[in-house]
Amino acid sequence: MACRVPGATDPEEFWRLLVEGKDAVSEIPGDRFDPTSLRELGAVTVRGGFLDGDVAAFDPEFFGISPREATAMDPQQRLALELCWEATERAGIGGDALAGSRTGVFLGAISDDYATLVHRLDASAVTQHTLTGLSRSIIANRISYVLALRGPSLTVDSGQSSSLAAVHLACESLRRGESAVALAGGVHLNLVPDSFLTTSRFGALSPDGLAYTFDERANGYVRGEGGGVVVLKPLSAALRDGDDVLCVIRGSATNNDGGGESLTSPHAVGQQEVLRAAYARAGVDPSQVQYVELHGTGTKVGDPVEARALGAVLGAERPEDAPLRVGSVKTNIGHLEGAAGVTGLIKAVLSVRHGQLPPSLNFDRPHPDIPLDTLRLRVQTRLEEWRTASGTPRRAGVSSFGMGGTNVHVVLEQAPVVEPVEAPVEAGVAWPVPWVVSGRTEDAVRDQARRLAAHVREHPEHTVTDIAHSLATTRTAFHHRAAAIGTDRDDLLTQLDRIADTTTPITQTQTGKTAFLFTGQGAQRPG
User: Fold this and answer.
1) What's the whole-number average pLDDT of the chain?
2) Is 282 helix (H, G, I), strand (E, B) or coil?
3) If both were cysteines, with which of 32, 49, 87, 264 could 333 make a disulfide (CB 3.0 to 4.6 Å apart)?
């Protein structure tokens, strides 16, 4: 997995944010647009969840893109490229290894804020790259092009359920054999005041800038931004290949409400139907699910409908003392809209993986239309160990609903236990091993050396040989390279620190042929 969300740049930081119960919502950054003028236009709030740092920052040369073309690209395309690359490297695949394979790309995206910015400029801003730079379909297609992938390539728009719908479509493609591997998720960025104003006038935003999910104070959602991507394979293939399986998607389903009181009003019957379909496909008894990551926007209408549907399908058979625990990541980072579903999915996967349930924020008293006890539901308000009966795997559901009624629910289960290989005792090695780092540029190599050194110091459980093997076999080898070579951790870390130093030369590989010389008996060579 890879993610970039308010307050976190990767899954590890995201997990720390969740378990510490942090609220990453803030006022609009000054480098986006003027919050004062937004208020003058009638927006009810100037708060939201925003990515840290410069959202325009991008390294186009890394992906073989010219600076001129990069300027014309929607930053959502740039973010998607970075996330897909990071996710494949984290999976131990490496971007180059997928070239020519039946790898599908399924990405949710619903906004065109960058196009709004471009169209405000004069005609000279339109170049030969503008058409592809602003096209939403290219968000997925550019991934397939850069990584040379041969599977399906779709940008999905089903409203706020888009990224989870993308995951559902990716799973179906894998089950049909259409794809062998799939990259699935979504991206969303808030770049102009216009989209804040439209959602505000629609009446969907919380004036407080807080998501009160299932709480009596529920008064709207909080806008957020970011993205996430998961790497998917059939379980049998992942186990065969020795992959580190984070979680299993047992089943999923999608439908449409088919009409509530209005176009954008949710319908409890439609939500019940998608839940029943998902658990039927998963072959899982709904009463055996211990946690559901809610759509949970914190709206007066949506929350009670979602609660009633969950109570009818997942809560009905539960004893009073074992309610279904529920929570919403939107209380931490806001509603990521086109990327909301995959964000909830990543939170649920991390929870299953770590065996802990992080708190859902801003809950004091239930909404009067949500009788939690009757529905056999309980809002998860504190960090708790996720305990199950002996032999019962941790199971979770993830919901995401689109404004126009497109519902998606995904059923997760703890990965099967694989007998661990006995870890070697770390006492140095009998011969030198290399820790190889590489990058597109010398600066990138030095940065990789710094990051690797920090990671090794933070994780003393990793052995010298495991690190060497992983660096050599699961990372892309770029033209600029350096290697720390030694027999013990401290020596190798010292060498990494030297590589990170700007005075140490970095090797650049050369293409050409290799000759082997067999020059006599060899007695003239020492050793």
Assistant:
1) 93
2) helix
3) 49
